[in-house]
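Entry for the shared binder. Reason: the reviewer on the internal report wants the predicted structure included alongside the sequence.
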Amino acid sequence: MMINSHQRNPVLLVHGLYDTLAKFNTMTDYLTRMGWSVHRLNLKPNNGDGHLEHLAQQVADYINNNFSQKQSIDLIGFSMGGVVTRYYLQRLGGVDRVQRYINISAPNNGTLTAYALPNPGIRQMRPNSEFLNQLNHDIPKSLEKINVTVMWTPYDLMILPANSSKINLGNEIKIPVLVHEWMVKDMRTLTAISQALSEPIKSYIN
């Protein structure tokens, strides 16, 4: 069910490790043509030298500085941006601002590739890291009040194992995209995103 453009929330896109806001050029063009107001930011540093909590605060600051307190938004996090946005939602009050949340190919349960480098933010994405264990502990009570969509590909070689992107919450969409990086520009993903952003919000959210 599509919603009218005047009912659509602004959408904020949050990128992953080593990426910039340019990662979302294709997605931004697509959603803009579909009638959404799309926002992006550059996380700094983007190379894992900073803790993920600090990147999540940048997301919070961007939202507080660019939207009125009464403006609800929709949020999309890709890869590292997926766990950064989850921290914002679960620890920084984001569930009170966000109505629809899309988590794309994120290391929600960690990734073995995070053992390759010692950077503090990358260590936080290792399986069973303290950061992820604490974040995953309160998934039901912190995220059940908003629309959640989790997208992942079984062919992911950046998130190992690929099903580490799964969360036992919301609507799960498995899309057989061949490369991790393509998840933000594959037409199947973009179509699924536009559908998720068009879903009515849960009835008890103001």
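Summary line for the report: The domain at 10-198 is CATH 3.40.50.1820 (Rossmann fold).
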